[in-house]
Amino acid sequence: MSRRFRFDIWTFVLIGAWAILLILLIWPLSSILRASLIDNETGTLSLVHYVEIFTTRVYQRAIGNTMIAGFGGMTGALILGVTLAFVTTRFHIYGRAVIQTLAVIALVSPPFIGAYAWIVLFGASGVVRKVLAAIGISIPPLYGVAGVIMVFSFKFFPHVFLITSGALAAINRSVEEAAESLGVSPMKRLFTITFPLILPAISASALLTFVLSIADFGTPRIIGRDFNVLATEAFNLYGGEVGENPGMASALSIVLIALSMIIVFGQRWVLRKNVYYSNMIKKPERQQVSGLKSLGLHVLAYGIVLFGALPAIIVVLFSFRRTSGPVFQPGLSLQSYEKVISTVSEPIWNTLIFSSIAVVAIVITGTLIGYLISRRPSFATGSLDAILMVPYVVPGIVMGIAFITRFNDPPIALTGTGLIIILAIYIRRLPYSARSVSAALKQVGPNLEDAAVSLGYSPGKAFMKVTVPLIVPGILAGALMSFVTAMNELSSSLVLYVGSTITMPVRIYLSVMDGEYGTASALSTILLVMTVAAVYAAFHLSGRKESALL
Question: Which residues does 228 contact at the CB level (< 8 Å), separation at least 6?
Answer without folding.
Answer: 58, 61, 62, 65, 220
